[in-house]
Amino acid sequence: xxxxxxxxxxxxxxxxxxxxxxxxxxxxxxxxxxxxxxxxxxxxxxxxxxxxxxxxxxxxxxxxxxxxxxxxxxxxxxxxxxxxxxxxxxxxxxxxxxxxxxxxxxxxxxxxxxxxxxxxxxxxxxxxxxxxxxxxxxxxxxxxxxxxxxxxxxxxxxxxxxxxxxxxxxxxxxxxxxxxxxxxxxxxxxxxxxxxxxxxxxxxxxxxxxxxxxxxxxxxxxxxxxxxxxxxxxxxxxxxxxxxxxxxxxxxxxxxxxxxxxxxxxxxxxxxxxxxxxxxxxxxxxxxxxxxxxxxxxxxxxxxxxxxxxxxxxxxxxxxxxxxxxxxxxxxxxxxxxxxxxxxxxxxxxxxxxxxxxxxxxxxxxxxxxxxxxxxxxxxxxxxxxxxxxxxxxxxxxxxxxxxxxxxxxxxxxxxxxxxxxxxxxxxxxxxxxxxxxxxxxxxxxxxxxxxxxxxxxxxxxxxxxxxxxxxxxxxxxxxxxx
Length: 483
Known about the structure:
The protein has 483 residues and is an all-alpha fold. The chain is built from 25 helices and no strands. Among the domains are: 68-137, Tetratricopeptide repeat domain (Serine Threonine Protein Phosphatase 5, Tetratricopeptide repeat); 400-482, Tetratricopeptide repeat domain (Serine Threonine Protein Phosphatase 5, Tetratricopeptide repeat).
């Protein structure tokens, strides 16, 4: 199971997302919706506690000069209930009018719509302006929304986790569940506040009960991993993921997809269902989900046909957000000229470097290989090649382990010739079925290099290498007249 975005609450197979942004879309309409319950009672859209519906009112006829009625009309257009059709453009227009008249709730709502491009062109600086205006009037939901802009460094603000956490804390003091959920995530990851699983659990539990999807996902993740003193319980985790995913939380959608893909948490393994949830998250811009979709199209699984161009499209979306596995995949596609792109080793190297700098071992190997060969737009450098091969090798990349062995065997990049050290690396690679390493071990045993000569052991390794497709090993076996 993997760790969360920013160490937060997203699982992505073997790679834990590290790209900044805790649930960018979890707040998409939270600010507007969280304040709707009372308002919708007032305009006859939600039933009262008695179970009877309030009489519907013709909100389109309400006097537009009244700031409260402007907001109520905007609220009604936002959801499209009763006699009022859903119209995000009209909702945004009315919120803006009310905001300009000083209504704090409307200032927060138009800020959210500007942030997410709902009914109006996306404009993060304007969004920040209105969140600040609303916060000046102590609107409870504006603290979380402005805090998120600080967390993600949007709208002209510098990325500032400490400021974000401070604003989340202020929002929790106002009783805002969304601020509580984001604060829980901050404590879980140690972003802007000291890492504290107990505090994370406290705030997530409180906010999750109020229906906040961020908190539900955090609580699901903590239950999934057995954090904060909770017993590990994948079934309960799935229950929380489902609650949050149903509200559109992109991390929860990706987490739920992962559980379906793995058949975990009491779910039957279901690639089609996993794909469905990954797509929901990917459509909201979730990089892990975008990469996962790319893999499905690359492999032709999950009910979709193999489509390298579509795979590349999703890889590129994730890669542009800094996803190292996707960057590596984009590099491979340029290396081979597949996925609708022309073969371009320089462009491939550019993407390999992006991924390698984030520690992706496959990319590190290819960066090393380009330096080893003097390809990909770089000058040949054994020293640089060995540096990258080592980075990949210590992470278990078999091809890189073999290359490190070669460098020790030949005394390249300033190394002393060391056949024993070379053999140590060959064994590591051979244990992962690397055919070149198996061939090298066969050669060492056959010739008694760094080990006692042993033709039987040599043949065993040559056969293993041949089974993995090594033509060199097969040629040796043929020469020795051994099948």
